[in-house]
Amino acid sequence: ESDNNLCAGFNASFCEAAVTLRCYSDWESLSKAVETANILQEPAVFTLCENSVLEIPTFSPIRLNIPDITIQCGSNGNSENKCIIEGGTTQLQVSKDRAKLQGITMTKSSVAAVHVIGEESASLLIEDCIFSENFGLAAIISYNGSLIDSFADDGEMVPQVEAFQDKGNDAAVTVRDSVFVAQN
């Protein structure tokens, strides 16, 4: 099946770009591509361009809302390829099963680099990643509750007691061959 068939029925201009672009070097393009994959409900692998720095606006996390989605650094997912995600409050939110982050450096988030929330079955494999200079609650937060509902439209956290009530078992996060450096 050709890449063009994946966009059948979608008029969004970013759909064609999302399925034909082979690596991403800016946050907006990556966000739009992942959003398209979420809409299409198809497993996907997103490759960050080697030696790239993806700067995040204050509150613009990418939400991985479908099973079997991967974001990797370079074609082999190796941290030596130097793909950096920098800034933002929360950089990536995972709410479904079998998500994978491979070879990415995540730095300077103000809440968490990675936030695993939502379904109890949600799982994330983090492999060969580097977490550096994150100054929020933690580099990785795993919570099976309704935190996603505790953000106002402007991205500010809204204090709601019910938002922090436990909803069951936390999602599974597996970290392999990764480094945590200078978390503030």
Task: Characterise this structure.
With 184 residues, the protein is mainly β. The chain contains 2 helices and 14 strands; from the N terminus they run H-H-E-E-E-E-E-E-E-E-E-E-E-E-E-E. The protein has helices at residues 13-20, 27-40; strands at 44-48, 52-56, 62-64, 69-73, 83-87, 90-94, 99-102, 104-107, 112-117, 123-127, 130-132, 140-143, 172-176, 179-181. The strands form 3 sheets. It has a 5-stranded parallel β-sheet, covered by helices on one side. A 5-stranded parallel β-sheet has the order 2-5-8-11-14, with no helix packed on it. It is globular. Residues 1-6, 16-20 and 146-166 have low confidence and may be disordered.
Secondary-structure blueprint of this entry?
Layout: H1 13-20, H2 27-40, E1 44-48, E2 52-56, E3 62-64, E4 69-73, E5 83-87, E6 90-94, E7 99-102, E8 104-107, E9 112-117, E10 123-127, E11 130-132, E12 140-143, E13 172-176, E14 179-181
Parallel strand pairs: 1-4, 2-5, 3-6, 4-7, 5-8, 6-9, 7-10, 8-11, 9-12, 10-13, 11-14
Helix pairs in contact: 1-2
